[in-house]
Structure of Peptidase M3A/M3B catalytic domain-containing protein:
Amino acid sequence: MWMAWPEVLASYAKHYQTGAPMPKELLDKLRAAQRFNEGYRTTEYLAAAVLDQKWHQLGSKQMPSDVIAFEKQALKDAGLDFAPVPPRYRSTYFSHAMGGGYSAGYYSYLWAERLDADAGEWFKENGGLLRKNGDVFRQKVLSKGGTMDAVDMYRDFRGRDPVIEPLLERRGLN
């Protein structure tokens, strides 16, 4: 979350011989490269996550005999049937689709990134990387572990449900 914040970057992004800080132009290029093709990357991810969930939501007597047709319909229903951007992973990549024990958690990576981006906004709104902010984050999130529902823990920290806008900003999709 914090690796490219100026105060953190200054502590490690230095020339290996001279110790000079990373030039702003290079950092700008890195940030632009990070956002390159983000629409494609996000769409292919979402398509795979949708397929993952669709398989998981089937009852034991609902297993389709035609995997390709099932995929096409699931993607169409979600508005993700766009041939130039196929799913990152096809149905057969997820073991639960083939009778394994995978628990349909592929969406959780993006969900976690959403929480991360929104939590980063909290730090910005509250003065940045200050000890008192770290203490609040530790007290309300990090120290809780699995002692309470994760959504309740996040609401207690943030004062509301997570929003998508910081993630869209981070990915350059706003």
The chain has a mean pLDDT of 90. The chain has three domains: 6-35, 38-98, 108-171. The chain is about 55% helix and 0% strand. Residues 19 and 161 are 42 Å apart (CA to CA).
